Amino acid sequence: MRRLLHIFITFVCFLPCSYATDWLQWRGPSGKNIAAEGESVPTRWSETENVVWKVDVPGRGHSSPIVLGNLIVLTSADEAGQRQGVFAFDRETGKQLWGTVVSQGGFLKAHQKNTQASATACSDGKQIYATFCHHNKVEAVALDLQGKIVWRQDLGGFLPKQYEYGYAASPTLYNGTLIVSADCDTVAWLKAVDVSDGKVVWQQKRPQMLNWSSPIVANVGGREQLLLSGLERMTSYDPKTGKPLWSTPCLTMATCGTVIWDDDMVYASGGYPDKETVAVKADGSGTVIWRNNVKCYEQSMLISDGYIYAVDDGGVAFCWEAKTGREMWKERLRGPVSASPVLVGDTIYASNELGMTFVFRANPDKFEAIARNQLGTESFATPTVVAGRAYVRVASGQGGSRQETLYAIGAK
Question: Global pTM?
Answer without folding.
Answer: 0.94
